[in-house]
Design a protein that fits this description.
- The complex is a heterodimer of chains A (486) and B (250).
- Chain A is α/β, with parallel strands linked by helices and 486 residues long.
- Chain A has 13 helices and 25 strands.
- In chain A, strands 5, 6, 8, 9, 11, 12, 14, 15, 17, 18, 20, 22 and 24 form a 13-stranded mixed β-sheet that branches.
- The radius of gyration of chain A is 23 Å and the shape is globular.
- Chain A starts with a helix and ends with a helix.
- The C terminus of chain A is likely disordered.
- Chain B is of the alpha/beta class and 250 residues long.
- Chain B has a single domain, classed as Rossmann fold.
- Helices cover 37% and strands 30% of the residues of chain B.
- Chain B has 9 helices and 12 strands.
- In chain B, the strands form 3 sheets. In chain B, strands 6-9-10-3-11-12 form a 6-stranded mixed β-sheet, sandwiched between helices. In chain B, strands 2-1-4-5 form a 4-stranded antiparallel β-sheet.
- The chains are: A alpha/beta (486), B alpha/beta (250).
- Chains A and B meet through helix 1, helix 10 and helix 11 of A and helix 2, strand 7 and helix 3 of B.
């Protein structure tokens, strides 16, 4: 080649690199999540869990008496229950070393300017105020350690009677509603971590959408755990009254520490007759987090619950959002993606309980494991005798990117209703050499071919994610949005 | 004799230690159409895969050159960028990658030039219409749920859009009904001109009717055992490989 040809060749190579955007299937770019703030908290409970700790949290939060009683009852249940005997190992969790309550040095406010600089900077890095300003969110809640530090909602929604606030305010201002619903769907005796949650819960979000009101722009709560060795136990309670609709987004992250952090949140969703709720979560905890979260929805006649669930972070996760289809024609759509990399044991899936005629559920998940990661898909579908003509389709696919990684699929079905229409498809695979050969024979190099296949694998799920989270997905497998969605 | 494009010399290759190609030589000139005939299991598809650089196959000796340059040291994607194209006998189904996205990515990688979306779409749409592929297939996932005929037409679509110097067609016309064979044949004929070449494996002479075949090679037991002009196609079409097999037995 002469010099001119060489230059032309080099230029083409440069362009090719640019077209690829990013070649490797990387771990999530964690830099923005891993920035630790100095621990400026003004109060922490002692480590471990005792009645004294629970009473202390309750007093600091100015709980009404019924809530203190509820906490103490939950603590008794917690102490009487054993750890679950199935699922990932929880050996790394030592409750005696978890700080259950960390009060940030900030009062809840509706003005970012009043949020302390270090905390505001953290949420800035995560892009929360920016999304709010661009009006891609109709309301924002931001929790830092154990307390919500910022909350806002558009004026027009307030006028229509929509309530979006932190749980503490809700207990004060909407005590009757909270009392009626709080931990009725996930009772403390459900499992040990539900009991723990009932005893030490703090923060979270309360949303109430009155009948017939459509909240067109999503509301989002973001949970950030900054303190080392702490637990976060936020409670989310959402009530969507008949004929109303809402899209709620939840995001979570934490910087990495060498000690174990615990997240045992609880989400209770009430979807009334003809109502519709979409609940999207992007969970991106650091790799020292035990994520033992419980989420449940109760759906009445003609109601629809849609779950979109992305599990990318944590050391160990157990997460199986549950939908109880309680009224005729109630529907559940579950869309989930889980990515387990080195040192991660992510046990995720969904559960559906169908207790009324003509209910239907659609579960669609993708799991990826790489670099020794372990991803388990676990689901339970129960169709009771009271639910004839139920329809359920489960499609779970797993992709292992190398020989060190592991993937398991554990779907359980228990069908008692008449004329049930049940479909199940499970696939576990590796990237096929033939697929790589096909793409490379079209001039695409092996790394890019691999990335294209992985992107393609999660594409049906990725397009369900809220757009603002596409960036996080991008960091994961570099979803080429214009190519796959345009 | 025209300018050499592909030159295979005394090629020995196999898979998992089993030799399939046993000293195969053949040469394709620029602008030429060559046909390879041979019984099942004679090594036809292996030859195509080895020329394209499938990592599963091991070349033990011999050489393959393209435009005078050694191909064996190059990876599959590099061979594609040099201007080789393989139309697969059984194209892979790849979920999540659309036909349009794949062809556009491919074109950018091969040419090393930006392929602008709007003109590309226009060209793709026109080409699809010509191959009687429904326009919505541009947005479908690669070969997923395609019928046999649709997969083959999709291969020809890529051939026309990527416009390689050498098209390796591995039974592109097999398993198709009469209409689909016609569409595929016309597609190949449309692709071919004096600046590119075709190396075709086929059991069906229909695909050759729209093309001027320059040379026919008969492949048996991993070697070329007979070569001739287009008349060889007709002979084998009528009488099978009996005469050649007999000659080999001697």
């Amino acid at each position: 080649m002469d010099k001119k040809e060489q230059e032309a060749f080099a230029h083409k190579e440069e362009l090719r690199q640019e077209f690829k955007k990013k070649t490797y299937i990387e771990d999530i770019e964690r830099t923005i999540y891993d920035v630790k703030d100095a621990d400026n908290s003004i109060y922490k409970t002692q480590e471990g869990l005792t009645e004294e700790v629970v009473r202390d949290i309750s007093a600091r939060k100015h709980d009404p008496q019924w809530m203190l009683d509820f906490r103490l009852k939950s603590l008794a249940i917690y102490n009487s229950m054993a750890l679950p005997t199935w699922g990932p190992s929880l050996d790394d969790l030592d409750m005696d070393n978890i700080i259950t309550y960390v009060q940030p040095n900030a009062k809840m406010t509706g003005n970012w300017k009043e949020v302390p600089e270090d905390i505001k900077n953290t949420f800035d890095r995560l892009g929360i105020p920016e999304a709010e300003q661009k009006e891609s969110l109709a309301g924002v809640g931001a929790q830092y350690d154990s307390e919500v530090v910022y909350h806002s909602i558009q004026e027009s929604l307030v006028k229509q009677g929509v309530v979006y606030t932190d749980m503490e305010t809700a207990i004060r201002d909407y005590e009757d509603i909270v009392k009626e619903y709080f931990m009725t769907l996930v009772p403390p005796k459900d499992h040990k971590f539900a009991a723990l949650h009932g005893a030490v819960w703090s923060g979270g979000s309360f949303v109430y959408v009155p009948a017939g009101v459509h909240v067109k722009i999503p509301l989002q709560s973001y949970f950030r755990l900054n303190a080392a060795g702490a637990g976060q136990f936020e409670h989310t309670l959402i009530i969507v009254e008949p004929g109303a609709s809402l899209h709620f987004i939840e995001g979570c992250s934490a910087p990495k520490y060498n000690v174990t952090n615990l997240h045992a949140g609880c989400v209770e969703l009430f979807v009334k007759e003809g109502a519709r709720l979409r609940y999207s979560t992007i969970e991106n905890w650091s790799r020292n987090m035990m994520n033992l979260n419980t989420k449940r929805a109760l759906v009445e006649k003609d109601g629809i619950i849609e779950w979109v669930s992305g599990s990318f972070g944590s050391h160990v996760s157990c997460l199986y959002p549950c939908s109880i289809l309680h009224g005729e024609n109630a529907k559940c759509e579950f869309t989930g993606v889980t990515f387990a990399a080195k040192g991660q044991d992510l046990d995720t899936g969904a559960s559906v309980i169908m207790t009324a005629p003509h209910t239907s559920a659609n579960i669609n998940t993708r799991t990826i494991s790489k670099d020794g990661g372990k991803a388990t898909y676990r689901s339970a579908v129960k169709v009771t005798r009271r639910a004839p003509d139920a329809k359920c389709s489960v499609n779970c696919e797993s992709l292992m990117l190398d020989n060190k990684s592991r993937s398991d699929t554990l779907p359980v079905m228990d069908i008692e209703g008449d004329r049930a229409d049940i479909g199940h498809e499970a696939k576990i695979g590796r990237i096929s050499d033939e697929a790589i050969f096909y793409l490379t024979s079209r001039g695409i190099d092996e790394d890019e071919a691999r990335a294209m296949i992985v992107r393609g694998f999660v594409e049906p799920i990725a397009k369900e994610l809220p757009l603002e989270y596409a960036v996080e997905m991008n960091n994961l497998v570099n979803i080429e949005l214009e190519g796959t969605m345009g | 004799m025209s300018e050499k494009l592909l030159e295979v010399t005394d090629l020995h290759a196999g898979v998992e230690g089993k030799e399939i190609l046993k000293g195969l030589s053949l040469s394709v000139g620029k602008g030429e159409v060559h046909v390879i005939l041979g019984p099942n299991g004679s090594g036809k598809s292996t030859l195509m895969n080895v020329i394209m650089g499938h990592p599963k196959y091991e070349v033990t000796s011999g050489s393959i050159s393209f435009e005078g340059e050694d191909l064996l040291g190059l990876k599959t994607y590099e061979r594609a960028r040099k201007g080789l194209f393989l139309s697969f006998q059984n194209p892979e189904e790849i979920p999540g990658i659309t036909v349009e996205n794949m062809i556009r990515t491919s074109k950018q990688m091969i040419t090393g030039e930006r392929v602008k979306l709007i003109p590309f779409r226009k060209e793709l749409k026109a080409m699809m219409a010509e191959l009687q592929i429904k326009p919505e297939y541009a947005g479908r996932y690669l070969n997923v749920g395609f019928s046999g005929g649709e997969k083959k037409r999709n291969e020809i679509l890529q051939l026309l859009m990527l416009n390689p110097k050498l098209a390796l067609l591995d039974e592109t016309d097999s398993g198709l009904d009469v209409d689909a064979v016609r569409v595929v044949s016309e597609g190949v004929a449309k692709f071919h001109n004096e600046n590119n070449s075709c190396l075709i494996i086929t059991h069906n002479t229909r695909i050759l009717e729209d093309l001027n075949v320059d040379r026919v090679h008969v492949l048996m037991g991993g070697r070329i055992v007979e070569e001739g002009g287009p008349e060889l196609v007709n002979e084998i079409n009528e009488n099978g490989f009996a005469r050649i097999l007999e000659a080999q037995a001697k």
